[in-house]
Write a structure and sequence with these properties.
The complex is a heterodimer of chains A (478) and B (1035). Chain A is α+β, with helices and mostly antiparallel strands and 478 residues long. Chain A contains 13 helices and 22 strands. Chain A folds into 3 domains: 162 residues, Alpha-Beta Plaits (2-Layer Sandwich), CATH 3.30.70; 129 residues, Dna Ligase, domain 1 (2-Layer Sandwich), CATH 3.30.1490.100; 75 residues. In chain B, the strands form 4 sheets. Chain B has a 7-stranded mixed sheet. Chain B has a 7-stranded mixed sheet with strand order 8-9-14-11-10-13-12, with helices on both faces. Chain B has a 5-stranded mixed β-barrel with strand order 18-19-20-22-21. The chains are: A alpha+beta (478), B alpha/beta (1035).
Chain lengths: 478, 1035
């Protein structure tokens, strides 16, 4: 077997740097025993004297304006996963190791890529940008490749090693936990040469059989297992048309076909689709994509098709269509405890969501909103738009608030100090003083009153305390 | 006319946004008749309000604002009301109620039920703040019945939308139950402007930022002390007049609180006077078995007369009782404080400072003019103080004894952090702002500092932030326990002041701190802990077992030993009490103390007061050349004679104010209080003006006046009176004597009393080794848990010093249980081999690792590497595998190098008995040309030197602007490095981080005192590898 290891020692930094336009001192911060420590520092930060292991306040003492990013292990895993997808072109036998490494068994691919050098070259040429520093190491066993890659961290090139080189290396590069490394050091055992000379039984007694198994694998005494890259589960299906279609109505049939397949797929996996992605292959071989978000997860062809029909009216085809592909990447599991998949979800909910879907399909999704209350005494900050159905309601401390709040308060004239709106208003309740909001430079200072018009309509008006100007702010429902 | 009866101060933590003092001033200015401070289940802020009124009254004698003591409660049933104390009896009921509600809850909370009120509060007045829901409560009938004639309904009108409805409901309830209504302000701030801070406090309390605090914030700024015409607009007239009527029923003042001493201290048949006399006469016979000198007898009589006149017998008897207990338990103790060093206290064994040999005068410490009780603090061995505390609780009960509170307040750092968080600043910005602390008070410096960080101070957010931080400074956050201030009373203490739980189990604190207690003339005793007393007692114990002689502090003091003073004069004082710090050590060779009183001065002179007042150099000059001694005036001669005309002690400055600036006794006393608190409360204010005016009038030079004022400011931070200095000097002498004559026993005891003092065990051991004491390593075959003395060498030469055997306690990560197991097995039979030890003790892996790490297994395995290998091989999870053990291939590991051993020595025990790391590194090319500490003594003043060492100390004293003092340790001793401010700026990273530092600079010498003024610093920590020599940072 021949293994290669791609190692990215500063992956966390790479991710932060990719999101910044200009280079600046950055550190990745971790918390250990309630101390904030530097895990990684980029070049500008290191140039200022910051080294990993330093506390954050000290680092900040060295660099003004230091950017401290928290480690985001999910994002790192995601990034490695993406690199894995990319590497899948070289070999199906690959796996992610730890937080920074990708291990690939490539002996099966050598023929295809015309030898190790060509393959290495290909890997280096096509490696996604933004992931430096990195190392690419080749060796006979997976763990040895990993060990050499880590030991030659950030070499930025392909390097080939043999197992005979192992004894010169420090035990620090072993993939074992720090406690075991510390224990080995504490016995004066610092190189692999020293370690590998010790009898297996004595080592197993002191460090456990796992260490010995690992070492045996490292030096090839026990062969590595071949990992298989697990392609993430997603739905994809396509249809090639026999003849061009140039009318959206004609698409209904192929859609039904695809949605049927999706429904079977969902039933098998017990999930429902959150969003659909259609791709039309056009006559000019261009691809036109057509995303469709669902407000609630769906799986049944019969539920999704009517939506599609509504939306199709708004679809403009750029050219006649040769084929269509449906991809679904986001799924939600079906609720637990549902006995029969064929029984629809709670009918009122389905209809409510279906209503929202239809409204959004007609009006455009930006034009359909829900309402949320916001805990702020200032009336104009007391609400916010939210996604339909996500609205929040709160207990408001005030007893009386108008149903309709004007978009902009409307200035009122006065007569003998009394405000006028169509007529001189009669104040029936107040003042309620609202004087707050100093923190975001939008402070208000107002005395609110409830006023009554002759026709019985009640208005919510206020007087600014600064300039005594009256405003109309809301109208109560009758 | 209006009396505010519902007002929260900032002692309703994170709720009230104004200080009690501010509330009182504001209420007075608005012309209120009375102000009730009604913090929630607390009276912690009332003394401050009371003192403020007292102060205003001194300025305006006809000033009339009545302070009413009250508190707000919400019961578990949901009933909300204010309780007010109309008279002394009701006050006691209120404090008892608070105590009860607080004691049954965890720290900072309370629990009250309606049934707790009856009949315990039958003298209190109630203002009910009802809602309709409260009126529906089942228990409301009995509540109304019980409070009949003492109950009002409170109307609240803060212009909230719900107020109108609520007022209407309350009016209805008032009619239904036939109760009078009274206006309530629901005051949270003294002024409208303070609402911003109140919002911030709310956000801090909810652990969020203001923007997210939502409806928890007040909707407007109306919860403040409103002007009378505003109130008239908001409330019906009868509700306003009722406030005054209600206030008139309240006649109680905190001045009525009178302290009663515990009576059981006097046996039957004696009066307090005759019993004190009896104890003193007893003491005289013990102290002077051959008869007391006439002058001393006269002194004692005079003191007893003053005590009688001021009725202080009980105070002395109380302290005596506690000290007597400690002595009976052989717990070493020593009194200090204003009255501690009197002849009477000497006779009562409260102090060992002998009035016959010292020049101290009792009158200086206890004045007839001051109407306050004398102040005696007693230090006890720090390891055994808890026994004394438990004795006090046992003797007087928790009903009658409690610790005083320490109000934990917002300091700059915490204020910046909390305000910043409340304003939503991110962590990076907060960290940057936190670094600006040193410049906070200096606007232009702060501006520059912030600009350097890229923060624009003109930014309104930053400006508002700064204002809020300044307002929050000094605000109380919570009550904590004072380190040892006890208040003990004759009757139940909770009728005097509420008692609540401290966070420490089995501790209770009162709601007032020591300033409050002093302001009300209540008595407290400070029961403090002192590590040096532990070390001294342990040394006495060791010497008794090794030499068969029992020493006493008093005996040692009687002979003034020349060798001891010589040791002090050459600053050979590592480990000696107080004079071991770097500043003290550089003063010793200059001051050259030769008598006990010199030590008193030595202790007091290296303090911010004398340093800031520039008194140090003139004093040293006059000591060297007595011709320079003169007095600014003849009147000052008696005040300053004993310090050669230079004021050094706080008492002298106060006496000076009276003699030179015509202060009356009372004024001088106020000055003393202001001094203690000026940093906290801001400004010496009128005292300073009066002092300079008075002194100028009497013809003193401006220069002299300025020095005195600077000195007073210095005292403010760490006031150090002569009486304290005298008590400390005594411990200086005793510890110096022990170090001089019994260095092994003394060092061993210091090690056993850790943590304490200025030096680490490593430094103490290096020092004792330089004094040719044999220090032996930790070894499972010989060590006890504590460090001990080994006398094998002494048996041949009794004059010789014993050796110190380091104890297992030094081994980091070794559990006490494991060590005990090991010692117990070894006592039965010594261990034959490592396998024998493993089999018999069955120590866990962690303990075995710890022992191997510390090289404590060296009797069995050749070295630590082998010890670990061997020990791990014997640690089997399963006994079944024991058979295989014999079959295992034998392995011999190579031995560690000297450097590896050194490294592990430091990691495992924090010290090495081998060569110093610097000795190992000496031949390294990077250190070529570096001097050793010992070499410096032979070099000339102003010579250029290069010196390297382990950084063991960094200090940035508040008195020296921007300068950093560093201590470098090498194989020959400790060198003092001075890094001036510009060098600190230039070599920031090196100053902050270097563990091994190389300094190029200029040597400065003054007599035997040597410093190196750093010019260039180089971090050489890389040479150390992982050597763990983390410095102790003293900031």
């Amino acid at each position: 077997m021949l293994w290669s290891c791609l190692h990215f020692p500063a992956l966390a930094l790479n991710l932060v740097e990719q999101s910044l336009r200009q280079p600046r001192p950055i550190v990745i911060e971790i918390t250990r025993q309630q101390r904030r420590l530097v895990l990684l520092a980029n070049e500008p930060a290191q140039a200022a004297g910051i080294v990993p292991g330093m506390t954050i306040p000290t680092a900040q003492g060295l660099v003004n304006n230091l950017y401290c990013a928290l480690q985001n292990e999910n994002a790192e895993r995601e990034a490695l996963q993406q690199i894995g997808h990319w590497a899948y072109q070289f070999t199906p036998y690959l796996r992610i190791h730890g937080q920074n490494s990708l291990l690939m068994e490539i002996s099966h691919s050598l023929k295809l890529f015309q030898g190790q050098d060509k393959l290495a070259q290909k890997i280096l040429e096509t490696l996604p940008t933004g992931f430096t520093p990195f190392t690419l190491a080749f060796c006979e066993t997976a763990f040895a490749a990993l060990l050499f890659a880590r030991a030659h961290e950030a070499s930025g090139q392909a390097m080939t090693f043999t197992l005979t080189e192992l004894p010169d290396y420090s035990i620090d590069w072993l993939d074992i936990n720090v406690e075991q490394k510390a224990l080995l050091h504490s016995m004066g055992i610092t190189t692999l040469g020293q370690l590998l000379e010790l009898p297996w039984d004595a080592l197993a007694n002191r460090f456990g059989p796992a260490l010995v198994d690992y070492l045996k694998q490292l030096i090839g005494e026990v062969p590595d297992l071949l990992p298989a890259w697990k392609v993430p589960e997603q739905f994809s299906a396509e249809l090639e048309f026999i003849q061009e279609l140039d009318n959206t109505e004609q698409l209904i049939f192929p859609f039904r076909n695809l949605l049927d397949k999706l429904e079977h797929y969902c039933r098998a996996r017990q999930c429902a689709a959150v969003a659909l992605q259609f791709c039309f292959t056009l006559r000019n071989r261009n691809i036109q994509s057509w995303p469709l978000a669902l407000s609630t997860a769906q799986y049944r062809c019969a539920d999704i098709l009517p939506l599609l029909q509504l939306k199709l009216a708004r679809l403009q085809l750029q050219a006649p269509v040769l084929g269509v592909q449906l991809q679904v990447t986001e799924f939600l599991p079906l609720p637990q405890g549902q006995q029969d998949l064929l029984v629809p979800w709670r009918s009122d909910q389905v209809s409510r969501y279906q209503l929202i879907d239809r409204l959004q399909a007609r009006l455009g999704s930006d034009n359909v909103n829900g309402l949320s209350m916001v805990a702020d005494h200032r009336p104009e900050y007391g609400w916010a738009a939210s996604a339909p159905g996500d609205g929040k309601s709160l207990q408001h401390p005030s007893e009386q608030r108008p149903f309709w709040l004007l978009d902009q308060p409307q200035k009122l004239r006065t007569k003998k100090g009394m405000p006028i709106y169509q007529e001189v208003l009669q104040l029936i309740k107040g003042p309620e003083r609202i004087e707050t909001g100093w923190w975001d430079n939008q402070p208000i200072s107002r005395d609110y009153f409830i006023a009554r018009q002759r026709n019985g309509r009640q208005l919510w008006i206020y007087r600014n305390r600064d300039d005594q100007q009256w405003y109309l702010h809301g109208i109560f429902s009758a | 006319m209006y009396a505010e009866l519902h007002c929260y101060s900032n002692f309703s933590f994170l709720r009230g946004a104004s200080r009690p003092e501010e509330l009182v001033r504001q209420a007075a200015e608005l012309g209120y008749t009375a102000l009730a401070i009604t913090d929630e289940c607390s009276v912690a802020g009332v003394v401050r309000a009371h003192v403020e009124i007292r102060k205003i009254r001194e300025e305006y004698p006809d000033f009339q604002l009545k302070l009413i003591i009250g508190s707000t409660f919400t019961t578990e049933e949901g009933l909300s009301f204010i309780v007010l104390a109309p008279n002394r009896h009701a006050y006691g009921q209120l404090t008892t109620l608070i105590t009860r509600a607080r004691r049954r809850s965890e720290k900072g909370r309370y629990r009250l039920q309606i049934k707790d009120l009856e009949p315990a509060t039958d003298s209190c007045l109630f203002i009910w703040l009802p809602t309709m829901a409260q009126a529906q409560l089942g228990q409301i009938g009995p509540f109304l019945q019980f409070t009949r004639g003492r109950l009002w309904i409170g109307l609240t009108q803060n212009l909230n939308s719900s107020d109108a409805g609520l007022c209407q409901q309350r009016q209805q309830l008032a009619q239904r139950f036939n109760l009078p209504v009274v206006a309530c302000g629901n005051v949270h701030c003294h002024s409208r402007e303070r609402q911003l801070l109140q919002d911030v406090l709310t956000a801090i309390r909810l652990n969020t930022h203001v923007q997210a605090a939502g409806f928890s914030l007040h909707a407007n700024r109306e919860c403040y002390l409103r002007p009378l015409d505003e109130l008239r607009r908001r409330f019906p007239l009868d509700a306003l007049t009722q406030t005054v009527a209600l206030a008139q029923r309240c006649t109680f003042s905190l001045d009525e609180l009178k302290y009663e001493y515990p009576r059981e201290l006097v046996p039957a048949g004696y009066t307090s006077e005759s019993w004190l006399r009896c104890l003193v006469e007893d003491g005289i016979r013990q102290r002077w078995p051959t008869g007391v000198a006439d002058t001393t007898r006269a002194q004692i009589e005079k003191e007893l007369r003053i005590i009688r006149e001021l009725e202080y017998e009980y105070y002395f008897l109380t302290v005596y009782d506690i000290v007597h207990f400690a002595r009976s338990q052989k717990i070493l103790c020593q009194g200090r404080g204003s009255a501690a060093n009197s002849a009477v206290c000497f006779c009562l064994f409260i102090t060992e400072v002998n009035p016959a040999t010292s020049t101290l005068l009792f009158e200086r410490f206890i004045s007839k003019e001051r109407k306050e009780p004398p102040d005696i603090d007693v230090d006890f061995e720090h390891e055994r103080r808890e026994e004394v505390i438990q004795f006090i609780y046992r003797k007087y009960g928790r009903q009658r004894a409690a610790l005083t509170a320490t109000v934990i307040t917002y300091r700059l750092k915490s204020a910046i952090r909390d305000v910043g968080k409340a304003l939503g600043f991110d962590q990076t910005l907060l960290d940057q702002l936190a670094k600006s602390i040193a410049w906070w008070d200096k606007q232009d410096h702060l501006q520059r500092q912030l600009r350097d960080m890229g923060i624009d101070i003109a930014n309104p957010h930053i400006q508002r932030f700064k204002i809020l931080v300044d307002q929050l400074l000094g605000f109380p956050r919570h009550l904590s326990q004072h380190v040892g201030g006890f208040i003990i009373s004759a009757g139940p203490l909770d009728q005097l002041v509420p008692i609540e739980n401290a966070s420490m189990a089995d501790r209770t604190v009162v709601q007032w701190d020591k300033d409050d207690i002093e302001a009300l003339n209540l008595m407290k005793i400070d029961v403090l802990a002192l590590g040096m007393l532990t070390a001294i007692r342990k040394t006495f114990d060791l010497l008794e077992s090794v030499r068969g002689v029992r020493h006493e502090m008093a005996n040692l003091l009687q002979r003034q030993d020349a060798e001891t003073y010589e040791l002090l004069q050459r600053a050979d004082t590592v480990g000696v009490f107080q004079v071991e710090s770097r500043a003290q050590m550089s003063m010793l060779p200059r001051l050259k103390p030769a008598t006990f009183y010199d030590l008193v001065i030595q202790v007091a002179i290296v303090r911010p007061g004398p340093i800031q007042g520039d008194m140090v150099h003139p004093y040293l000059q006059r000591r060297q050349n007595p011709q320079l001694v003169h007095y600014e005036s003849d009147a000052l001669k008696p005040v300053l004679e004993r310090t050669l005309g230079i004021p050094i002690f706080q008492e002298q400055v106060i006496a000076l104010a009276m003699v030179a600036a015509n202060f009356s006794g009372g004024e001088a006393d106020q000055l003393r209080r202001a001094m203690a608190a000026w940093k906290r409360k801001g400004g010496l204010g009128p005292h300073e003006a009066k002092l300079s005016a008075g002194m100028r009038e009497n013809g003193y030079s401006d220069d002299f006046i300025q020095h005195i004022i600077s000195q007073i400011r210095g005292f403010g931070e760490y006031g150090f009176p002569e009486s304290h200095a005298a008590s400390f000097a005594l411990l200086v002498y005793v510890s110096a004597w022990l170090k001089c004559h019994e260095p092994a026993a003394f060092c061993c005891s210091l090690l056993n009393a850790q943590p304490m003092g200025f030096y680490s065990p490593s430094q103490l051991i290096q020092d004792v080794k330089r004094h040719n004491i044999d220090v032996r390593p930790v070894d499972v075959q010989y060590s006890q848990w504590e460090h001990r003395l080994e006398t094998d060498a002494m048996q041949r030469h009794p004059q010789q010093q014993p050796a110190i055997r380091l104890g297992l306690c030094l081994v980091s990560n070794l559990s006490r249980a494991g060590a005990d197991l090991l010692l117990q097995q070894r006592t039965q039979q010594p261990f034959q081999s490592l396998a024998d030890l493993t089999r018999r003790c069955r120590l866990n892996k962690k303990d075995m690792d710890a022992l191997a790490h510390a090289n404590a297994l060296q009797s069995f395995s050749a070295h630590r590497f082998q010890a670990r290998w061997d020990a791990r091989g014997l640690q089997r999870e399963s006994p079944l595998l024991l058979q295989e053990q014999q079959l295992e291939t034998a392995v011999q590991l190579p031995a560690p190098s000297e450097a590896q051993n050194l490294l592990e020595d430091y990691q495992s025990t924090g010290l090495t008995l081998g060569r110093h790391p610097m000795a190992l590194l000496r031949s390294h090319p990077a250190l070529r040309g570096c001097k050793r500490h010992r070499d410096l003594a032979a070099l000339n003043h102003k010579r250029f030197v290069r010196i390297a060492g382990i950084v063991t100390g960094r200090q940035r004293p508040g008195t020296a602007s921007g300068v950093v003092f560093m201590t470098l340790e090498d194989e020959t001793g400790n060198s003092n490095i001075v890094v001036w401010r510009d060098r600190v700026e230039r070599f920031r990273a090196e100053v902050l981080q270097a563990r091994l530092l190389c300094v190029k600079g200029v040597l400065e010498r003054e007599g035997d005192v040597i410093h190196v003024i750093a010019g260039h610093l180089e971090d050489m920590s890389c040479l150390l590898g992982e050597l763990d020599t983390r410095s102790r940072d003293f900031h």
